[in-house]
Each structure stands twice: as C-alpha cells, then as structure tokens.
C-alpha cells in the first residue's frame, strides 16, 4: 500500500511518517507535502491508496483537495487531520474515511490503521467472491463502509476540562447520566456532554449500544460477563477498569440469550 501525507507542519509530517513505519509497515509513504496544491499534484501522480490530509493548508485547503479528487479513476481513502473539530461534518460530506484531531494521539492513529487494514481485508474478501476486475463490486463495498444506510452517530462532541473534543463512538465503553450532565467513558478517559440519554440512544446503533438502565448506556462489545448478586439483582461487568453497572428490571430481557 502507498500513502501521501499533506500537512503544513513539518514536525507532524515527520511524526506521521515515523509512526506509520512502526505501526503499519505495510504502507509506504510516497510523498510528503506542505501545501494543498503540491498535495493535489502528488496524489494525481502517485495514485496512493491512502491520503493523510490536513484541512488548513496554504494554497488549497484539505477540503478543496478532496473535492479535486472526485474525477480520479482511483479515489484514495482520505483521513483528514485538523486542530479544529468543527470541520468534522464537512469532512465526512467529502467522503472522509476517518478524522484525526491534533495533536494526533498515537493510540488513535493505530485505530485508524486498524480500520484501513479491515477495509482492505473486506475489499479482498469481496474480490474473492466476485470478478476481481469488477469495479462496481468495490464501489458498492466502499459505499457500505463510508456511507452506512443508517446515519448513526460516529462522533460525540464532548468536553474534557477546558477542551472541546471530538470523541469517536468506536472508543466509547459506556455513558452514564449524572446530575445535569452525561459522562462519556472511553478507553482513553472521561468526557462530559449535555445531551440527554433519551436523545443519545436514538442516535446510537442498537446493535452496538444497549440502554441497560434509565441512567446507563453500554457498548455491547465492552461487556465481559453478566452476573447476579445474592439479592437477584443483575449487573454487567465490563472488560476494562473493573467497572460494574446495574441492569434495570426492564432491561434484563436483553441478556436472556447471553
């Protein structure tokens, strides 16, 4: 696989190049550019599989670069990088595969790399089951990954101290209503939002998140086991941080087949 990195910060370009070589050695960075026009030229010349694209750059911004790729025969996976989370919606409108906030967290970058690997595996599987030369088969797969039929939340805008963060839903283990806020517990820390749980549950994929209590929503994959105490009350135990969450009587039916 090949990649192009485009960012006006030399240190970030160096960091991405070095970190990718460590965590994703199968990918070869074929160009590293500091402005939008150079990035667009490199992408058209090199035809990379992946582009790590800053949004605010001299010349052309990253959104404009992405728009300039729509006529290519081979459109790369675009991972936008920016310090400004307000660009998230616009980025995904331009078919972003992922979105990284500066400063780029290594664990988050590794997760992006895992998503790329999963995508490539899925493409290869699709090719195995269809004509390997079928462009339409691959286009259908890309459409399913980048534009799922149900528009469930992919990001949660939350606060942590004085910072406003864009938290990937994939990183959330559980959410809990506490006083006037909802706490968002992830593998990387705790965040706060004001959106009520009754509104959040409508926006989350019901196959991935269950409301187990009027004050608690949990990611199904984070559940390690379900256990009753001596009074008969049901609890879920998560696979991280020894967390135990109560299950309401109304929600116990969710676990009948577990």
Automatic annotation (TrEMBL):
SMART domains: LytTR, REC. Keywords: DNA-binding, Phosphoprotein, Transcription, Transcription regulation, Two-component regulatory system. Residues 2-117 form the Response regulatory domain. Gene3D superfamilies: 3.40.50.2300, LytTr DNA-binding domain. Signal peptide: none annotated. Coiled coil: none annotated. It holds the Pfam family LytTR. The keyword Transcription regulation applies. GO terms for molecular function: DNA binding; phosphorelay response regulator activity. Residues 156-258 form the HTH LytTR-type domain. Transmembrane segments: none annotated. The modification 4-aspartylphosphate is found at residue 54. PROSITE patterns: HTH_LYTTR (PS50930), RESPONSE_REGULATORY (PS50110). This is DNA-binding response regulator. It comes from Photobacterium chitinilyticum.
């Amino acid at each position: 696989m090949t990649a192009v990195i485009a960012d006006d910060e030399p240190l970030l370009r160096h960091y991405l190049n070095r970190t990718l070589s460590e965590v994703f050695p199968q990918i070869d960075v074929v160009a590293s550019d500091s402005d939008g026009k150079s990035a667009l030229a490199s992408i058209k010349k090199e035809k990379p599989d992946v582009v790590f694209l800053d949004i605010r750059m001299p010349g052309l911004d990253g959104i404009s670069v992405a728009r300039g790729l729509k006529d290519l025969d081979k459109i790369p996976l675009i991972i936008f990088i920016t310090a400004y989370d307000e660009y998230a919606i616009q980025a995904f409108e331009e078919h972003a595969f992922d979105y990284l906030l500066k400063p780029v967290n290594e664990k988050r970058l590794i997760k992006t790399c895992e998503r790329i690997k999963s995508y490539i595996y899925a493409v290869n599987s699709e090719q195995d089951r269809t004509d390997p030369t079928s462009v339409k088969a691959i286009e259908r797969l890309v459409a399913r990954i980048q534009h799922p039929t149900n528009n469930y939340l992919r990001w949660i805008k939350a606060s942590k101290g004085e910072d406003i963060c864009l938290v990937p839903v994939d990183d959330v283990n559980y959410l809990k209503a506490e006083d006037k806020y909802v706490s968002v517990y992830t593998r990387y820390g705790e965040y706060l939002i004001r959106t009520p749980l009754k509104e959040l549950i409508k926006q989350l994929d019901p196959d991935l998140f269950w409301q187990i209590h009027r004050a608690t929503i949990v990611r199904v994959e984070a559940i390690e086991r379900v256990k009753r105490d001596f009074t008969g009350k049901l609890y879920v135990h998560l696979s991280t941080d020894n967390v135990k969450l109560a299950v309401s009587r109304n929600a116990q039916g969710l676990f009948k087949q577990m």
